[in-house]
Specification:
- Helices cover 39% and strands 15% of the residues.
- It has 10 helices and 10 strands.
- Strands 1, 2, 4, 5, 7, 8, 9 and 10 form an 8-stranded mixed β-sheet that branches. Strands 3-6 form a two-stranded parallel ribbon.
- The N terminus is likely disordered.
């Protein structure tokens, strides 16, 4: 029976981390593990990891991969149902699409144990979603603050689980995993949005309106380094938070094996670049595979 622990084999848990569009890398990592005969007995995820994990457990990974590989920028924009309250995007168009085309079952009816992580916005604590419909769990887990509107649940407002548990090793342990393989999407993100910003303003061939006003007021124009744009500051701040929380959680709750695809070249909303993310996930999993096999062999060896 799926998920049953054998005395000679650990119960394997797969913990899929959050990272918005970078999450398509999970597909490549899962493919490598499956090809190597390493099949998770239980799966949990945060944010985009919850979405990919749900498709995997429900047997929908082939359909999901085919769909994301065909995504165009225009398709992604079409899913953005803008809102004036709680977040820029309601997220209902995206979730409605997944309800109609992919998974929308009761979590407890899935073939293998599955869980998603969300954050209680008022109390700042993580919420483990292990019952109800898959689509509701995924919608809560992906509700990135400021981008997606929060989700009402049992008197609380739930937002993205990445705020408190970006790589949910702890949930995998709570679901009775003996051996946890974690996929971290945030390993190389620090400074990603600031790397290509020039250190100084380019020379101006003619004065701007701001220059003219400043001259009339007797204010000298600052020729020093130009500050980063607001969105670059915001994205880099989110990256700092995600990376440091991830490092802290993994230090206290280490995985038995870690897959960390290099994904700094992918932006937060570049869902249409799935091929790049999937290949990065595949390469990272292939690099980690010898260590995973060695540790699994050590578990299986007579003591």
């Amino acid at each position: 029976m799926a998920g049953t622990k054998s005395p000679s084999r650990p119960r394997i848990g797969l913990a899929l981390g959050g990272g918005s569009a970078r999450g398509w890398a999970h597909i490549g990592a899962i493919r490598v593990l499956e090809d190597a005969g390493i099949r998770a007995d239980l799966v949990c995820g945060t944010s985009i990891g919850a979405l990919v994990g749900a498709a995997y457990v429900a047997g929908e990974l082939d359909r999901l991969e085919a769909w994301v590989r065909g995504l165009k920028l225009q398709t992604v924009v079409g899913f953005l149902d803008f809102s004036l309250g709680g977040g820029l995007i309601k997220g209902e168009k995206l979730i409605a699409f997944f309800r109609d085309h992919f998974v929308d079952r009761d979590i407890r009816a899935l073939e293998r144990p599955y869980g998603a992580v969300a954050t209680d916005l008022a109390r700042g604590r993580e919420i483990w979603l292990r019952e109800g419909t898959v689509s509701d769990a995924v919608r809560a887990s992906i509700a990135l603050p400021g981008l997606f509107t929060p989700v009402a649940s049992n008197g609380s407002w739930l937002v993205d689980g990445g705020l408190v548990n970006p790589v949910p090793v702890s949930l995998a342990r709570a679901m009775d995993a003996d051996f946890v393989i974690a996929v971290d999407l945030n390993a190389d993100l620090l400074g990603r949005h600031l790397r290509d910003i020039p250190a100084a303003r380019p020379p101006r061939t003619k004065p701007t309106l701001a220059d003219t006003v400043m001259a009339q007021l007797g204010i000298e124009r600052d020729e020093g380094p130009a500050p980063p744009a607001m969105l670059d500051v915001l994205a880099s701040s989110i990256n700092i938070m995600q990376v440091l929380i991830t490092r802290s959680r993994l230090a206290g709750e280490p995985a038995d094996a870690l897959i960390a695809p290099p994904l700094a070249s992918l932006g937060l909303m570049e869902f249409h670049r799935a091929a790049v993310a999937i290949e990065a996930g595949r390469r990272a999993a292939e690099a980690a595979l010898p260590q995973i096999r060695e540790r699994l062999d050590g578990w299986n060896a007579p003591h």
